[in-house]
Amino acid sequence: MAKILYIAANPKDEENSISLKVARKFIEKYKKINPDDIIDEINVYNDEFPIVDKDTVNGWEKLWTAQPFESLSDVEKQKTQAIDEFAEEFSLYDKYIIANPMWNFNIPPKLKAFIDSVVIVDKTFKFIENGAIGLLENKKLFHVQSSGGIYKGSPHEISDSYLRTIFGFMGVTDVRSVFVEGVYMFPEKAAEIMKQAIKKAQSLALDF
Description:
Elements: E1 3-8, H1 18-33, E2 38-43, H2 54-64, H3 74-91, E3 95-101, H4 109-116, E4 125-128, E5 131-134, E6 140-147, H5 159-169, E7 174-181, H6 190-205
Parallel strand pairs: 1-2, 1-3, 3-6, 6-7
Antiparallel strand pairs: 4-5
């Protein structure tokens, strides 16, 4: 039995979000094939999670300079512990699903904040003599991204590339992506674009 975390990153509700609709079809197909697997969900625009802020950074700087944990203020202790626990919980999942729109060629800011709260040393990666290695080996990521225009393969497409890079840094190298592109550029083709995206997503669910 696998544990999966679905990270939705869109302030729109599912009915009005292209990326969330496609992700839901992926999840439905996946559950039919793997009914015993557990899928937890978080929407970074609706659900609370610890974020990196001034108190967190101040606490980390004290710890990085070998100051004892007791030297941190109460709020620094609380926030650094919350981030550590959040990253630890994230690391326990076997597979990840992310759905987001492309905004200004990148991922939405709250998705970036979420990622900053899980890319934590000794939780999802660790330093070694010659650099760093990821601790999330043998895990998988499915990513669905929507955009009004068509950007895949162009210099403007840096969002899926970023997710592949940062998850690869954490050790996740099995990444499958679906791009839902051009629905606003070509509204007359929107239904067919969605149909093809859902078809590809459901196909990728077969062996995810």
